[in-house]
Write a structure and sequence with these properties.
A hairpin with a 2-residue loop joins strand 1 and strand 2. The longest helix is centred in the middle third of the chain and has 14 residues. The strands form two sheets. Strands 6-7-8-3-9-10 form a six-stranded mixed beta sheet, with helices on both faces. It has 253 residues and is of the alpha/beta class. The chain starts with 6 loop residues before the first strand and ends in a 5-residue tail after the last helix. The chain has one domain: 3-Layer(aba) Sandwich (Rossmann fold), CATH 3.40.50.300. The protein is built from eleven helices and ten strands. Bound molecules: adenosine-5'-triphosphate. InterPro entries: AAA+_ATPase, ABC_transporter-like_ATP-bd, ABC_transporter-like_CS, P-loop_NTPase, PstB-like. This is Phosphate ABC transporter ATP-binding protein.
Length: 253
């Protein structure tokens, strides 16, 4: 049975120095579903997402209260090593950012870092991962050419492949289609729907249609508070809160 509170966010608040930007967020994110974080610019979506793999830790002066648990275990447990956490939680960013390497070497990057260099294993991972990222057919004849030779949408799918090559449990996506055209966007949305068979996905998006097309649950944040969190259909069709209704109907952005 997939776990309903695979990522359990428990009364979580977060500050950059004196600026408190998340206020007592409570949210259970289920396993192998797509959960979208929506809300106006600056409401704290990326901050919340980046806390799910402790990416904000390196910023000076940050503080948190409350807890985030992955599969029952606190991210802040002193025994949790951030490096092993990042293996469990992959991340894809707004601007596709392949490394200046070949397509093949981008996919196997995290395996090489972990000292896994056996050619036959790497070949298998490359094919399986590129198939999962819906890119194999387009690149199988040019695996050893530069990743920069791909289109923007292909480069983003390659970044998704790189993020999932080491089989994380969770995939965090921060506006993954923001730099893509509508056709490439739809391909990534198809891919997100396929990938939830294997991964728990959390996506930040400004695009309401995208949230309604590809997420199972939607959380609406406003000024660092979680205003509403429910099944996506419910949030879009019969929101409980006036502020959610106003936002999704475009009365403010
Ligand atoms: N590194 C940082 N240092 C200080 N303040 C930050 C930092 N990153 C974000 N903030 C502030 O935290 C608040 C929340 O920002 P965040 O990027 O999480 O919001 P967002 O909802 O993802 O916004 P957007 O949709 O514009 O990307 C904003 O007021 C922002 O200015």
């Amino acid at each position: 049975m997939p776990r309903k509170d695979f990522i359990a966010i428990d009364n979580f608040s977060f500050s950059y120095g004196a600026a408190k930007v998340l206020h007592g967020i409570n949210m259970d994110i289920p396993e192998k579903q797509v959960t979208a974080l929506i809300g106006p610019s600056g409401c704290g979506k990326s901050t919340l997402l980046r806390n799910m793999n402790r990416m904000n830790d390196l910023i000076e002066g940050v503080q948190h209260e409350g807890d985030i648990r992955l599969d029952g275990k606190s991210l802040y447990d002193p025994n949790v090593e951030v490096i092993s956490l990042r293996k469990r939680v992959g991340m894809v960013f707004q601007k596709y950012n392949p490394f200046a390497k070949t397509i093949y070497e981008n996919v196997v990057f995290s395996l090489r870092v972990a000292g896994r260099n056996k050619r036959s294993e790497l070949d298998d991972v490359v094919e399986r991962t590129l198939r999962s990222a819906a890119l194999w057919d387009e690149v199988k004849d040019r695996l050893h050419t530069s990743a920069f030779g791909l289109s923007g949408g292909q480069q983003q799918r390659l970044c998704i492949a790189r993020a999932i090559a080491n089989q994380p449990e969770i995939l965090l996506m921060d506006e993954p289609c923001a730099a893509l055209d509508p056709t490439a966007t739809l391909r990534i949305e198809d891919l997100i729907r396929d990938l939830k068979e294997q991964f728990t996905i959390v996506i930040v998006t400004h695009n309401m249609e995208q949230a309604s097309r590809c997420s199972d649950l939607t959380a609406f944040l406003y000024m660092g508070e979680l205003v509403e969190y429910d099944r996506t259909l419910k949030v879009f069709e019969t929101p409980k809160e006036e502020r959610t209704e106003a936002y999704i109907s475009g009365r403010f952005s």
